[in-house]
Write a structure and sequence with these properties.
- The radius of gyration is 14 Å and the shape is globular.
- By secondary structure, the protein is an all-alpha fold.
- The longest helix is centred in the C-terminal third of the chain and has 21 residues, at 94-114.
- The protein has helices at residues 3-21, 23-37, 44-58, 61-73, 78-92, 94-114.
- The chain is built from six helices and no strands.
- It is 84% helix and 0% strand.
- Helix 5 (78-92) packs antiparallel against helix 6 (94-114).
Length: 116
């Protein structure tokens, strides 16, 4: 199992349990998520790339997996993801060089799955 799927699998059970304990909080978050990532002045792919770069900045493995998958679903190219991650590295220095490659690997994994 590769990085992105491993992170998603690790969080699946605990996430489900907390969602059951806090259904209204999670529903509110889902509404915010859907509204923030909906196409508008920026398309959904661009928003996923921004979210992925922020996920790297925040060093959030679960966020990286989610938004790498989202970028792949929205049809982002490897070059687009790499450039977004380059900005994350610029803004974060050394930690960006650790979490950026994780994000790139997760994106490539999910893009590969989508093309099957």
């Amino acid at each position: 199992m590769s990085y992105g799927e491993q992170v998603r699998e690790e969080l699946r059970g605990p996430g489900r349990e907390l969602r059951r304990a806090l259904p209204r909080v999670y529903e509110g978050y889902k509404q915010l998520h859907d509204a923030a990532l909906a196409p508008g002045a920026l398309d959904a792919m661009t928003k996923e790339l921004i979210a992925l770069a922020i996920a790297v900045s925040r060093e959030c493995d679960g966020c990286i997996a989610a938004h790498a998958h989202g970028a792949a679903r929205q049809g982002a190219s490897e070059e687009q993801v790499a450039e977004a991650l380059g900005v994350a590295i610029l803004m974060n220095g050394g930690p960006g060089t650790v979490y950026g490659p994780r994000a790139f690997a997760a994106f490539r994994e999910f893009r590969s799955e989508a093309s099957r």
